[in-house]
Amino acid sequence: MFSFPAGARIWVAAGVSDLRRGFTGLSAVAQTVLEQAPFGGHVFVFRGWRGDLIKLLWWNGDGLCLFAKRLERGRFIWPQAASGTVSLTWAQLSMLFEGIDWRRPARTWKPDMAV
Which pTM does this prediction carry? Predict the structure, then answer.
């Protein structure tokens, strides 16, 4: 099991990325397109053409880590922008990673009044 550091930010590359790229190619995208330091400890999220595969790139201090997830059914909910970056919270990343619509999560219960 791994955990990301509390101060790390999550950057989503809007649009689609060529996920045939590995460590070097995706870190170059993080540096040139997203204009963020790939070795700064932040998490970078990239989506493939079909929308059922994402890759996360993260520098843990010793080296780059590359995580991939493919959904068996459905697609990952992605920002509507065609280019640029979007910053997510850890809760939004968790929902995105599970294939849940992180943009408008629906609460199952809300209190009516305080006692």
Answer: 0.81
